[in-house]
Design brief:
By secondary structure, this protein is an alpha+beta fold. Helices cover 36% and strands 18% of the residues. A hairpin with a 4-residue loop joins strand 4 and strand 5. The longest helix is centred in the N-terminal third of the chain and has 22 residues.
Length: 435
């Protein structure tokens, strides 16, 4: 049965999260000294709401549409006082209040992946990437590493890094450590996350399962290379060592080369993998190789999911649910407007990335309360615009919002196998925005 109060309740949870998080930061003295201490045209709650609901137009247009009568300079001075971490904690608090509970076969399913966001050009910043051969100039990028709930279609967490120093595995381990996951949670990852260290971390985390796609070529894990190229479901047991003694070699241990000497300065050519456990260290995991009906190719997946809950066919379905995080990136950048940032600094860019994720989550939750005909889905771009107006108007009707959202739908096209071909768009100069 449709919950006609859903939009109003979600908005209420969102506004309460803004207020409570802001109050907590004030009480704990975590805001910059003397910031937001006096009532002005841009108090903290107004600033936070505006940052979260911004789209991709010029700053003048965004301020006008939000009904905020201040100069761009005043706005920039106020946003300088807001740490990006504050918006990240709003993301966490909003998620906690909403308690998204939909699952897949009683499991909470999260996907992890990275996406690039171009920011303003600055050759002195650590985000700067030198020009490639034939290019006239370099560019600046941030690398966002989100953890995404593919069933409830919301962002759980994110780590943002300079693209030249991006470390997706490190970001995953950081999010794994700082989050408390519900019972029966599984994190799905693509090939960039495969490593014995990642697998060991998951096995050490009680109740957190993993499903990671593995390479199948010569650069694959040694134990994967020797498996026959056919469908299979087997258990692999390996012992990892960081030394290369005669005994290690005789026992067939897997050697992980690390920079063991903390006082030594290693050459950039010296390969050093991450390993956070003892040596030797035993671990075992399930390996599933499946054949794709579409092209006959194989995919190899490592997991610790129990066979009684997930057959190889279930594993295949679960892995392909990971595509939800890819489509979410498109919505962040094009439906919400993350390709058009409103500041030049890395600090401002991080603010807007976390803000876009918060707004994306709010739209997803409201969309889930809408009713659509079979074979059709809500047009997220239009729903985002409607939800933006709903947040900004105090007396907006949640019932009317859902009715409007339900008018704008599009056909669902299941089974599409399009490869990801999107590249990060260049930073759009402020003089070339839609006025």
């Amino acid at each position: 049965m449709k919950n006609t109060n859903a939009a109003r309740l979600i908005k209420g949870a969102f506004m309460e999260t803004l207020k409570d998080t802001a109050d907590t930061w004030r009480k704990e003295g975590r805001l910059k000294e003397n910031s937001f201490t006096r009532e002005r045209k841009l108090p903290l709650l107004t600033m936070l709401l505006f940052l979260i609901t911004m789209k991709g137009g010029t700053l003048d247009k965004e301020l006008h549409d939000a009904g905020i009568d201040v100069s761009k300079q005043s706005f920039s001075k106020r946003r300088e006082q807001i740490p990006p971490r504050l918006l990240l904690e709003i993301l966490w608090g909003f998620n906690h209040r909403c308690g998204d509970s939909r699952t897949f076969r009683d499991y909470h399913v999260y996907a992890v992946d990275g996406t690039c966001i171009n920011i303003a050009h600055d050759v002195d910043a650590e985000t700067y990437i030198p020009p490639r051969k034939g290019a006239s100039k370099g560019y600046n990028q941030l690398h966002a590493n989100p953890l995404y709930d593919v069933v409830n279609k919301v962002y759980l967490d994110a780590v943002i890094q300079p693209q030249p120093k991006q470390d997706e595995i490190g970001a995953l381990l950081q999010m794994l450590k700082r989050n408390t996951f519900p019972e029966k949670s599984v994190i799905v990852a693509d090939r960039g996350y495969e490593s014995y260290n990642v697998i060991a971390h998951f096995l050490a985390e009680s109740g957190v399962y993993f499903l990671i796609r593995l390479k199948q070529n010569r650069s694959a894990m040694r134990d994967i290379q020797v498996l026959p190229m056919e469908e299979l479901d087997c258990d692999l047991a390996v012992t990892v060592t960081t030394t290369q003694t005669k005994t290690d070699k005789e026992n067939g241990y897997v050697w992980v080369q690390t920079h063991r000497n903390a006082d030594r300065k290693y050459s950039g050519r010296t390969r050093g993998a991450r390993w956070d456990f003892g040596s030797p260290y035993k671990l075992s995991f399930r390996t599933v190789r499946i054949r794709l009906a579409e092209n006959g190719e194989y995919e190899t997946l490592a997991t610790n999911l129990p066979r009684e809950d997930f057959t190889p066919e279930d594993i295949k379905e679960l892995y392909h649910m990971r595509w939800g995080i890819e489509t979410s990136f498109r919505a962040l950048k094009y439906d919400i407007g993350l390709t058009h940032l409103h500041g030049k600094s890395e600090r401002y860019a991080k603010q807007e990335i976390y803000a876009a994720m918060i707004f994306y989550n709010l739209v997803s939750r409201i969309i889930s309360a809408a009713e659509t005909e079979p074979g059709r889905a809500v047009n997220r771009a239009r729903a985002s615009d409607l939800c933006r107006d709903f947040l900004r108007k105090n007396k907006a009707s949640g019932v009317k919002l859902l009715k409007e959202i339900e008018k704008h739908t599009e056909p669902v096209r299941p089974g599409r196998q399009d490869k990801r071909t999107l590249q990060a768009k260049g930073f759009a100069g402020f003089a070339y925005r839609v006025p």
